[in-house]
Amino acid sequence: MLSKKAIHAVNALVFIASLPAGESVTTAELASQIGLSVSYVESLLKILREGGFIRSTRGPGGGYDLAMSASRISVWSVVAVFDPHPQPLSVNGPDQIDLEAALGMAFDAQFEAVLSATFIADHVQAVPDLQRSGKPQNWSFGIKPLVPRWMPEAPNSVFQLSQFVAEPAVAWHA
Question: Are 80 and 70 a contacting pair, CB within 8 Å?
């Protein structure tokens, strides 16, 4: 199936494709919008840039934008860069058919056909209205939903414990 890295790369491309024409996005903005760390997004963008999907502009006002139209980038072409699939080896003798390998190859062919017929542009309308507020939007174009993160409120050190105990409790709202 798809690796998390491939899913995140497709999400990043969908977000970049949803930007107004002529606009670019910085690594920090993209990381914030898709809810990932900046260093992880940098590693994704490096591979996407080397694959020819995006281009980068340095300096003030720089960032990343698509190197080609989103309607020309198939989801499979992105997945293939991140998840190269080796051909399965037959565990049976040369005269025997390996049923599991044959079924796996048939499934892979169908999976590739579906993703080859699906383009980044097909998913741009799934991106909510862009809010460049720096707050994570936690959206995904549909392969895998992102789970919102919950962080407990507690002291970070022994020195903050006395301040934490002195503050009134906050009621939880579900």
Answer: no
Q: How many domains does the chain have?
A: 1
Contact present, 67 and 52 (Cβ < 8 Å):
yes
* Top mean-pLDDT range of 59-63, 96-100, 137-141: 59-63
Q: Is residue 113 part of a domain?
A: no
Q: Yes or no: say if 53 and 68 are a contact pair by the CB < 8 Å rule.
A: yes
In this structure, what token pair is assigned to residue 7?
């899913």
Q: Which helix (H) or strand (E) holds 54?
A: strand 54-57
SS3 65: strand
Say if residues 167 and 159 touch (Cβ distance below 8 Å). Answer: no
In a domain, 78, yes or no: yes
Domain of 127, CATH number, reads 1.10.10.10
* Domain, as residue range, for 124: 4-87+118-166
Q: Let me know if residue 105 belongs to a domain.
A: no
Between these two residues, 51 and 171, which has the higher pLDDT value?
51
* Half-sphere exposure in the Cβ direction for 129 (13 Å, CA): 0
pTM over 0.90: no
| Class of residue 98 by CB neighbours under 10 A (exposed 0-12, middle 13-18, buried 19+) | middle
